[in-house]
Task: structure prediction
Amino acid sequence: MPRGSGHGRRTSLERRWRVRAASHRVSPGHGREGPIVPREEPSIGDLVAYDRGVADWKRGVRKVLYPAYEARMLRRMPANLPKHIGVMLDGNRRWAKAVGRDTAHGHRAGAANIEPLLTWCDEVGIEVVTLWLLSTDNLNRPDEELEPLLEIIVDAVDSLADQRRWRLHPVGALDLLPAATAKRLKAAAEATSDVDGMIVNVAVAYGGRREIADAVRSLLQEHAAKGTSLEDLAQRIDIEHIEEHLYTKGQPDPDLVIRTSGEQRLGGFLLWQSAKSEFYFCEAYWPDFRRVDFLRAIRAYALRERRFGT
Result:
């Protein structure tokens, strides 16, 4: 390694620590180690240099090895891949706190990772992706956080619509959103309605319980308009009738649901549709979710034996 590299600094510091360790001796008659004044103590500057050197070394290793590792995973990917993937993009705020930035910065970093994810999904032939960007519970956040977040979301959706690579489909209680926000989401859907590509459900103001309630309400309104009596409806209503009124009607149920940030709960995401889904929980916060994390999730799914509740 060239002089001055992270490896060189680390070797120098380790040599100093060995000197320090050698300065400890066994105290006579006590049977335990008794420290004496070390001959050489690493300085704060040494410690910082060591940490930076190790971090640089790790980044270098990842940069070299990960692309090859990802390519190998793609070559060995089994054939039984999911058709529909749901993704809970969780951890933006905790990521921002960890890097010492404000919450909006975390949401912007998360939004920047959406397009790469969709590209990875395209690479392996996923047909439908559902992205949970904002829950109905999130609407209760303070205005100073919610307003920038809504703007970040619609900007991200507008950017995806401009590319015309995917067919966008907003799902959620859009009536709970500001009128301007709902209008932009609907405009993105209209602008990509003729795109022959992967379907991307953009879940904004989405809650699983709210979706089921909306589906039942829509079903009742439909039959009321037809003049169906409650007695007749009670005899005819079944699972298929309700599914026809879900936000995702006409789409396959999610085969795989991924949640980032280490949390291991669904929180109501695709509550009806995920009854027989496989789940994958990733420790990384959403802004740090990488292609290799995605491929690992796909591989884990492909290696499972799905029983569909039997």
Remarks:
- The beta strands are 25-26, 33-34, 84-88, 128-135, 167-171, 199-206, 256-259, 278-281.
- Residues 123 and 154 are 25 Å apart (CA to CA).
- The first helix runs from residue 6 to 22.
- Confidence is low (pLDDT under 50) at residues 1-6, 19-31.
